[in-house]
């Protein structure tokens, strides 16, 4: 049998967090390799990485985006199971048993509860958007604390996602037309359409410095544009894209009106 696990970490100016991500993998009790794909960082973040026989580094000459870089990492890796992990994420405990689960059941996609610096659980999975209310109130899409394996989970955030190589190759990985935002939800949609099931274990946790906050509210709408452009056509696509633009402009205007500069800047970038 070949190598069990390949961990793919896309890095862009990861700084001190990249080392934390790589060091956390020592918790694993399965054989693994680490593939770091660097998107032309300018902060010398690769210099913090320790020398390891199981570490591969791929250096891109430009920032090709999250999806393309992950696809490149998977193309160059050797494992039967793939763990996508952000450069500012870290394991907090061994997930070897779940790696073996995904290796046995190749249509299972696994993740666990995401916690931030404050150690509080934050939403990192949910259901696909499908209505006006989902666009107006994106928080409706997220599943909260207390989820279990029987929860209706459509997608898992790409900051920590465990999948089989067979499933990945069947759907062709990330859509390379998307530079960033929404590509993980679209990947999950593609996987679900070929029979994948998504399991989130609430008793296991991982750290992620990033995640959702006030400065990233607009990014949700960039993801919405990608999702509705891909899965809807004709009048319905035009309706949803127009609706998205209107909601983004409304929220930008409210941010300006109430002097919430962080939110306003985020929505302005999404327009």
Automatic annotation (TrEMBL):
The keyword NAD does not apply. GO terms for molecular function: transferase activity. Residues 6-119 form the Glycosyltransferase 2-like domain. It holds the Pfam family Glycos_transf_2. Keywords: Membrane, Transferase, Transmembrane, Transmembrane helix. SUPFAM superfamilies: Nucleotide-diphospho-sugar transferases (SSF53448). The chain crosses the membrane at residues 239-258. This is Glycosyltransferase family 2 protein.
